[in-house]
Please model this.
Amino acid sequence: MQTKLILAALRKHRLATLLIAMEIALACAVLCNACFMIANRLQLTRVNSGVDEKALAVLTLGGFDQAQPGDLNARVTAGLRAIPGMQSVSVINAVPFNEQGTNGGVTLDQAGKRFGGVVTFYTGGPGSFEALGLKLVAGRAPQTDDFQSMATFVPSDAQVVVSRTLAEHLWPGEDPLGKEFWCGGFHFRVMGVVAHMARPAAGEGGTGTIEWSVFVPTLPGHNLAGTYLLRADPADLPHVLRDAETAIAQIAPDVVLDHEGSRTVSDLRERYFRNDRVMAGMLLGVIAALLGVTALGIVGLASFWVAQRRKQIGIRRAIGATRGDILRYFQAENFLIVTFGIAFGMLLAYLLNAVLMKFYELPHLPLYYLPIGALSLWVLGQLAVLGPALRAAAVSPVVATRSV
Amino acid sequence: MFGYYLDMAWRSLKRTPVLTGLMVLAIGLGIGASMTMLTVLHVMTDDPMPGRSAQLYTPHLDPLPLNHKQGGDSPDASANLTWPDAMALLQSHRATRQAAMAGGTLLVHPAQPGQQPFYVDGRYTTADFFTMFGVPFQRGGGWRATDDAASAHVVVLAASLARKLFGSADAVGRMVQLGDNDYRVLGVVDDWAPKPMFYADATAKHYSDADLFFLPLSVAVDKDLQLNGNQSSWSKEALGKHSGSMSWLQFWMQLDTSAQVSAYRQYLVDYSAQQKALGRFQRPPTNAKLYTLMGWLAHQNLVPNDVRLQLWLALGFLFVCMLNIVALLLAKFLRRGGEISVRRALGARQRDIFVQLGIESALIGMAGGALGVLIAQLGLWSIRQRPDDYAHLAQMDGAMLLGTLALAVVASVLAGLLPAWRACRVAPALQLKTM
Model:
């Protein structure tokens, strides 16, 4: 009964109703997709690096020949170990989030026919595996005999540790231990699997491959020098790193300290994801502004309709409608308009998602975002209309007896 | 009549201050957000060399083997040139001016005791670079083609680096140690950094990098100095800067007439065909292209996806705000059916009513535009706090400021069109009867 009445009234204001419904549809589409993108970004920033980030720092040196580091590694590691609070110093080529490291395409056969993807190689000296704090889930950690020297970028034939994600990608459903893979002329055999090991940069292929890492035990020296992994108690770490930076001037006056590249791993992580956090914040702002403007529109239009229908409201009140009836009338009217908007908005949300998928690396919009978006718009609509509806309910029946 | 309508609009808006405020706020927010992102896009796609860009061209050759597979996210190996190709183009002298170049990072050893060595970015290039790009010299000048040929150990410094090394003293003629070698300073240039740095390769931070030194390219090759751009190779042969299967060089030239341009296009195809005949190239010679400066920037697509997405979001937001205003104006104008009918009955034409209501929407637009300018300044300030390399460029110039106001007025007048049209079509007789 009420619904029929409302529809009849809305038919008188087809254009305004349509416009507000369209606004709600657009808001619904943007709301669903923006929420989904925020969730995606934030999920990205929560990636598990697998290392003890809070206890680790990296110190980077430059200004020497990578191919002939001489006794640099020995001098630096010995010198830094003397710093109070330092738990361990080891040589490594990169740490998670410092955006260095060596990438290489790997194949599952020697001939190079079955391509496995582009992975990152961590080449770490003795002690670095333990210092990183990687959690072994199968196989064994590198032993002293596993460390080999290298000529170019990795040892030519090595026992390696891979991340679980990479193992599942290369050998789905199989036991990765003892499996082999190649990278050009280099041969690797898996001796251990760790739960998580993020790459220094998300690198090629986007977010799905952020844990495609291989740890290759390598003896420091030729092409593995100048980047040092420091481990200390999280509370001591900032001052240990500072002391290490000042100590370098005495330990190795012949090289240059790279201040930009000498940071704690938590600091590196913060910097690495700064853009994603900015983007998530910006999307949040868009949602807030959009919902705010939509609410403003509803308030404005409802207020106008209330003012316009004062006389009709008075008549309805005079012939027996209660305040509650009037209140519910405006609430039901808003509910109907918002429902039209949402119905169209869901289609629009899917369309928008399809466009975003085409141009951005974004998966399908999960279905559960739609009811959540609908619910929040219904709540928003009801909240926005409450003020004008209450004013309508307060209209006195006496109005009916007056001519406007 | 205009003044009268303005007065009427002002009175009408004052009668409903809340609704007017809401409409101004909505258009201000929409315009502010859109102009923020349009300004960012504007500064990012701006012409880095106004006045010169129309004459600057960069060639593109395709020396890759047929079976070369381009990785999804890895840099395009054919975006840069190999040493033999760049030298062939350079020595052909078919353009008015031409220069090959590559970015490099070197360790500077200051002569003064106590100063620590530090890394600086610069460019290895050939003699025409300075005249072709119009690099402004403070002192001295660039080197000559003979210096290129002789691999002379000479250098041009940016003013900030010269000041850091030599203080206020004249740097020209002094010696500076970069890496393991000493170079004689030939000239000092103003800190010169086109935004975007169009001549740098894809790895550069195009909006924040600046070259602090310029060395002859031949020296970089002789001494095998460190490069900081992409070095893509596609063969297993011994690699090195001389290799014909490793791309690492950028090449720019100045072509003054369209005849020169088409002749150079043909020359690139002929050169590719010749290399194919020699067995060096495998792909069709027609893959060779000549890009204009702005065309090359468009091809490189320097604007990050995030910025584009934000622009679309902002424009979408403006659209929602406009829908909002259309609905509100419609309600407002239609409610004034009685007033409009009286005016119509007194002799006003539909057109007069239309103009009167249009002026009222334009007034809202003006106010919204003013608010939009403030909001856009706030938005740009927040963008400048971002960590991105383009962040510091986010400033509004006079043209964008006027554009903001214009966009606001246009948007609000557009939004007012439909409501005004509907309102001026009310039948006066019917309305007057119910009054």
Summary: The longest strand of chain B covers residues 97-109. The CA atoms of residues 103 and 200 of chain B lie 7 Å apart. Chain B has two domains: 2-45+304-434, 77-258+295-300. Residues 350-384 of chain B form the longest helix (35 residues).
